[in-house]
Amino acid sequence: MTEPSANEHVLTERPQAHPGVLVIRFNRPEKKNALTEAMYLRIVAALELAEADETVRAIAFLGTEGCFTAGNDMGDFLAYALSDGSKLPAAAVLLKALVAASKPLVSGIDGLAIGIGTTLNMHCDLTVASSRSLFKTPFVDLALVPEAASSLLAPLSMGHQRAFALLAMGEGFSAEAAREAGLIWKVVEPDAVESETLAIAANLAKKPPQALKIARDLLRGDRNLVLARIDEELAHFKERLKSAEARAAFETFLAKKTI
């Protein structure tokens, strides 16, 4: 059987009912939408096309029923750990593309939002989550460190203790806890996530684009600070990926998945 391509694992849509909206959908449900290197690059390409297309006014991230994404594909993590480490991880390329995005980003979460499935939302302007969603970043449990400038953005939005619980202790946050912490904006029932997310994106797409861009830039602040923190985290992340304790953690995780 032919392995599905990244084009099938990351779908892009322009819903007719919502002019001006580009949907980027994670579509690898058999692997809980775990993101591979090819998927990251597919998302980057979609963001770059959206940036160049004046008819795209807002971008919406969605997953599949019961799962936004379980985070980075662990097989790719292990492959990097066994490589010479010279290649920039595709996840880092995506993170910088998110920071560079000039158009509103919204996300709709239903179910699992693990690792980058949580930190991606820190770069979104509005996030809707279902009442059954779970936000969790098991970085330290995998002998890794926070990424996506989350070590900068999370304390700013939720304070040190909540950020530490999420990013260092690896505590899972329910949708309501995430809303109270300022990680997401709204909690809805599972069957309303997609419609609510697309309605928000469509609403943003109707607004005067230049005025919205200026307002968004003012709210988001200095992108250079975010990019600098991404680079700082990435240096630690790459070092940790090559560490013996990280390799052991990946192998233990993958062994459990095969039992």
From TrEMBL:
Pfam families: ECH_1. Keywords: Isomerase, Peroxisome. Transmembrane segments: none annotated. GO terms for molecular function: delta(3)-delta(2)-enoyl-CoA isomerase activity. It is found in: Peroxisome. InterPro entries: ClpP/crotonase-like_dom_sf (IPR029045), ECH/Chromodomain_protein (IPR051053), Enoyl-CoA_hydra/iso (IPR001753). This is Enoyl-CoA hydratase.
